[in-house]
Design goal:
By secondary structure, the protein is an alpha/beta fold. About 65% of the residues lie in helices and about 5% in strands. Strands 6-5-3-8 form a four-stranded mixed beta sheet. Strands 1-10 form a two-stranded antiparallel ribbon. The protein has a two-stranded antiparallel ribbon with strand order 2-9. It starts with a helix and ends in a 6-residue tail after the last helix.
C-alpha cells in the first residue's frame, strides 16, 4: 500500500512540474517583446511568399484541345523547338540517304560447289533412285521433275555447262530480289562489297536485274555455252540454271538504318524564341500544338527551378527581415510603450493589405489593357493607390511612423514591378505626401482633400518620370 502511495505522489509531483513549466512558457508567450518579434517574423514570411515571383506547388495538366484555366505569360526569354519544321528537316535529310545493298562476289562459287556436290552424290550413290533424287535436290536446294532428273542422271557431264552458265551470269550481272522504289531510282543506292567492305555509289539501277526477270539474259548466256546441244537439253539446263541463280545483291536494313541515324544525329532542331512577357495562352483559350510546346518548356523550366524558387523565397525573407529590423529601431521610439504590440500588429496588417492591394491593381491593369489595348498596362499602374497604407498609418499612429512605413512599402513594391525604379519613386513620393498632409486635416473631408493634393503630386511625378525616360512626346 505504501508503495502505491509513493508512486502516486511521484506522479503528482511530475504533473506539477510539467504544469509549472507550461506556466513559464505561457508567461513567455505573453511577453510583449516576443509577441512583437513573432508578428514581424510571420509578416515577413507572408510578404516573402507574396513577393516571390511565380511560386507554384503544381502546374495545371494541359493537353492539346483543352481550355486554359488562367493566363500564362513567359517570365523570361527561352527557345522552343518548332517540331513541324524540325520534322521536315529530318525528313529532307532522310530523303537524301541512299539505302545500302550488300554485294556477294562469292555467290557463284557457292552455287557451283553445291552443284558439284550434288552430281558427286548422284554418281557415287548406290541407293534407290528416289533417295538419290532427294539427296540431289537437297544438295542443290531445288525441286526437279522426274524427266529433269532422268536427263541429269543419264548425263552427269552437263554439270560443267551449268557451271559455265552460272559463271557467265554472275560475271556480268548484278541480281537482286528487291523491287526498287522511285526514290531509289532517282537517288541511286550504295553497294558494299561483303568481302572488302568497300562502298560505291550506283546511280544506274536499270543495269541491275531482278531474280525473277533474268530469262532474256539467261537465254543469251546459255545460247553461247549450249550452242551445240539439243533443244530439250538446252531448255532443261536453262530451267535448272534459273532455279539455281540467287541474288548477289541484297538489301542491308541494319546498315541503311545506321546511316539514317548518323545523319539524323547531325540534324539540328529548329527553334523559335519566346520573349519575356510574351503571352503564351490566355484564360479560356483552346490549347494548340504550338501552345503545348511552349507550355511544356516553360513548365519544365519552372519544375527544374523548384530549388531556385526556394532560394529566392529565403533570400526575399531574409532581406525583408533585415530591412524590417533596420527600420524598427528608429520606429520604436515613436510608438507608445503600452500600445507597441498593437501598433506593430496594425502596421503588419496595413503592410499586408497594401501589398495585396497593389497586386490586385496590377491584375486589374492587365485586365484593362486586354479590354482596351490603347491603354498601356504601365499607364494603368499609376492609378494604383500606393499611398493608402501610409495615410492610415499617419492618421492612426503618427507621421514619423508613416514615413518609415512609406520607405518600407516602396521598397517592397519594387519587387512587384520587376525592379522598375520609376514605379518605386512614384509610390514613395505619393506615400510621403499623403502621410505628412493627412495629419493637418481633422475633418471628414480630409481624405478627399488629401486625395486631390495627392492626385496633383502624382500628375507632376508622372510628368517628371516621362521627362527622365525621354518619352514625354508620347505622354
Amino acid at each position: 500500500m505504501s508503495s502505491i502511495n509513493s508512486s502516486k505522489h511521484e506522479i503528482i509531483q511530475l504533473l506539477k512540474s510539467k504544469i509549472a513549466r507550461f506556466n513559464i512558457s505561457s508567461e513567455f508567450f505573453k511577453n510583449s517583446q516576443f509577441q512583437g518579434w513573432a508578428i514581424i517574423i510571420v509578416l515577413n514570411i507572408i510578404l516573402a511568399f507574396l513577393l516571390t515571383p511565380d511560386i507554384h506547388f503544381s502546374h495545371p495538366e494541359y493537353k492539346i484541345g483543352s481550355i486554359a484555366t488562367r493566363d500564362v505569360k513567359a517570365d523570361r526569354d527561352f527557345l522552343v523547338e518548332d517540331r513541324i519544321s524540325s520534322e521536315q528537316r529530318r525528313n529532307e535529310t532522310i530523303k537524301d540517304i541512299r539505302p545500302v545493298y550488300d554485294y556477294d562476289s562469292d555467290i557463284s562459287s557457292s552455287i557451283i560447289a553445291n552443284l558439284t556436290k550434288a552430281f558427286t552424290i548422284m554418281a557415287h550413290s548406290s541407293t534407290q533412285r528416289s533417295q538419290i533424287k532427294k539427296a540431289f535436290e537437297d544438295a542443290l536446294g531445288v525441286i526437279l521433275t522426274e524427266d529433269e532428273f532422268s536427263i541429269l542422271h543419264n548425263k552427269p557431264s552437263i554439270s560443267e555447262k551449268i557451271a559455265k552458265i552460272i559463271i557467265a551470269i554472275y560475271n556480268s550481272e548484278l541480281i537482286t530480289n528487291v523491287t526498287f522504289l522511285k526514290h531509289d531510282t532517282d537517288n541511286g543506292i550504295i553497294i558494299r562489297d561483303i568481302k572488302t567492305q568497300k562502298e560505291r555509289d550506283e546511280r544506274n539501277l536499270n543495269s541491275i536485274r531482278h531474280v525473277n526477270n533474268i530469262d532474256n539474259v539467261l537465254s543469251r548466256k546459255a545460247s553461247v555455252v549450249l550452242s551445240a546441244d539439243e533443244q530439250d537439253i538446252r531448255r532443261l539446263l536453262i530451267t535448272l540454271s534459273k532455279k539455281l541463280i540467287q541474288p548477289n545483291l541484297t538489301f542491308n536494313k541494319n546498315a541503311s538504318e545506321r546511316k539514317k541515324l548518323i545523319a539524323l544525329n547531325d540534324v539540328k532542331p529548329v527553334f523559335f524564341q519566346v520573349q519575356k512577357d510574351e503571352m503564351i495562352v490566355r484564360e479560356g483559350q483552346k490549347i494548340t500544338i504550338m501552345d503545348m510546346d511552349k507550355l511544356d518548356v516553360i513548365f519544365k523550366m519552372k519544375g527544374e527551378k523548384r530549388i531556385s524558387n526556394l532560394s529566392i523565397f529565403l533570400g526575399m525573407f531574409f532581406m525583408i527581415t533585415t530591412l524590417a529590423i533596420i527600420l524598427y529601431f528608429p520606429t520604436r521610439n515613436w510608438l507608445k510603450f503600452e500600445r507597441k504590440v498593437h501598433d506593430i500588429l496594425f502596421l503588419s496588417v496595413a503592410m499586408l493589405l497594401q501589398v495585396i492591394l497593389v497586386k490586385i491593381g496590377i491584375f486589374m491593369s492587365e485586365a484593362v489593357n486586354r479590354a482596351f489595348p490603347f491603354l498601356s498596362t504601365e499607364a494603368c499602374f499609376y492609378a494604383i493607390p500606393f499611398a493608402i497604407g501610409s495615410m492610415l498609418v499617419g492618421v492612426l499612429i503618427n507621421q514619423n511612423v508613416a514615413l518609415i512605413f512609406s520607405i518600407f512599402a516602396s521598397f517592397l513594391v519594387t519587387f512587384l514591378f520587376d525592379g522598375k525604379i520609376h514605379i518605386t519613386l512614384f509610390a514613395f513620393l505619393g506615400c510621403v505626401v499623403a502621410s505628412y498632409q493627412i495629419v493637418h486635416y481633422k475633418k471628414r473631408l480630409s481624405f478627399l482633400i488629401i486625395g486631390l493634393i495627392l492626385g496633383l503630386v502624382n500628375c507632376a511625378a508622372i510628368i517628371f518620370i516621362s521627362l527622365i525616360q525621354g518619352n514625354i512626346a508620347s505622354f
